[in-house]
Amino acid sequence: MSASSVAEQVATLRNQGFVVARQLASPDTVKAIRAEAQRQLAEAIEPLEYEADVQYPGAPASRQAQGGATARRLLNAYGRGPLFQAWATSPVVAKWLHTYFADTPVLSKVHHNCVMTKHPAYGSLTGWHQDIRYWSFSDDDLVSTWLALGQETADNGGLFFLPGSHAASFSASQFDEQKFFRADLPENQNWIERAVCPELQPGDVVFFHCRTLHAARQNSSDQVKLSLVHTYYPQTTTPLPGTRSASVPGVPLAT
Question: pTM here?
């Protein structure tokens, strides 16, 4: 990828809060990561988060209920082997993020750092939210990467984004007690009507700001959707001491 195309994508991210970098991961990389993720999912290799744990709309009522063994996330992707580590710290990701931050990118091993799954049955709906809601850093200019390991559309649970929401000033009353953006408020509806869902092909990567509002529907297809997700911050930004964000050291990326 040329420096000019990266610069254009960075400008788009700054402007609208997200951008798609097409075919950033090679077919071989995607194929290998997907196969390993499917193996670990089939073998239920811990640590896992289950749909029943989060209790979002459409999730099973409990681990003991029908569908209770449906996984939502394979946690600690960085610790799941060299394939995952290689992608999270890859030169192409490091170069992109260095252009954005103008600083050394640092991988968070606390936030995201997972394979997100979306199952056709019992895969829950995710409401509008900003990722920064439960994070604690000295600054809020963090960026996440979402690598599509298969096709992603609105119908199989692909991400929807609200362009420009990362730069907006919202009041606490516009969110519910779980810090989800309230769809019942007229002032929020004006934002939600702008929602876009970029269709992704395997190897496409979405870079999105931690303040960008995003959501996802349930998966109405007949295939499990898999995505590899990581979060990064610039080296000059620090996790706040004593918080979950500071509980595990980050990984600086060579640039």
Answer: 0.96
